[in-house]
Amino acid sequence: MGKEEKKARHSTSPNTQSQTGKAPGGEKSAGSTQESAMKKKQKKAKGDPKTGQEEESHTCCGCRFPLLFALLQLALGTSVTVLGFLMAGISSSLLVRDTPYWAGIIVCVVALVGFVMLCISYQPDEKTCVQFTVKLLYFLLSALALVACVLAVAFAAHHYLQLTKFTCDTTPESCQCKLDAADPLGRTFVYRDAADCGSLSSALGLYLLLQMALNLAAALVCLLTCFVVWKHRYQVFYVGVRFQPLTAAQGHGQQV
């Protein structure tokens, strides 16, 4: 009996030692898993800086990039187009440059391309050919719309300055205006389908001022759009070439 009790004690003692030896290891493994879980939570809470930069790069004012600019371009382009056709209805003799509905149509087309960009899923660094093509087209059309709006502002301003200096005479079917009434060889500007020169000059002057304001606003929006697209395409390069100061150890190593 004594021998059997001794054997049982010897057999149980290694098991207890093994259990006591495994306990710290189990605690360590549990602690390591908890630490890794905590680190993952902290990373998720802080967020990856690369993904944060990507999210910020294609968002503007809390919305996806082209949405705000496309809405502004659509509103301004529609206003310019409608106002241009209204100006064309005043007199059939007005030139195309004096009724800049063409500038509004170009801005509306740019806005539609911006809405197409919203339908394309975002890929960082232009990993898709479709996204790169649409973005390049949006940039080029915005630049074209910028030039068209600036030309429309210039033509409207020139016509408005001439209108303030006109001396007009009403005829049965038109309104004839001259810059210098005393000059018999001076150029005569004829506005057909105008019953009254006074109402024509006042309405046309108001339309020209509105065209200058709307086209100037559209030009600024298109310029800002080009700037944002250009910065989003090349801002990674500028971030990469920033100056990084040396640490004390690196500076000491270079001096040695």
Briefly characterize the structure.
The protein is mainly alpha-helical and 256 residues long.
Structure keywords:
about 260 residues, mainly alpha, three-stranded antiparallel sheet, two-stranded antiparallel sheet, 7 helices, about 75% helix, disordered C terminus
Note down, in words, how this protein is organized.
With 256 residues, the protein is mainly α. The chain has a domain at 64-166 and 196-234. Helix content is 73%, strand content 7%. The protein has 7 helices and 5 strands. It has helices at residues 2-46, 49-57, 65-90, 101-119, 129-165, 197-240, 248-255; strands at 59-60, 63-64, 167-170, 174-178, 188-192. The protein has a 3-stranded antiparallel β-sheet with strand order 3-4-5, covered by helices on one side. Strands 1-2 form a two-stranded antiparallel sheet. Strand 1 and strand 2 form a beta hairpin. The radius of gyration is 37 Å and the shape is elongated. The chain starts with a helix and ends with a helix.
Task: Itemize the secondary structure elements and their pairings.
Elements: H1 2-46, H2 49-57, E1 59-60, E2 63-64, H3 65-90, H4 101-119, H5 129-165, E3 167-170, E4 174-178, E5 188-192, H6 197-240, H7 248-255
Antiparallel strand pairs: 1-2, 3-4, 4-5
Helix pairs in contact: 3-4, 3-6, 4-5, 5-6
Pfam families: CD20
Subcellular location: Membrane
Biased composition (Polar residues): 11-21
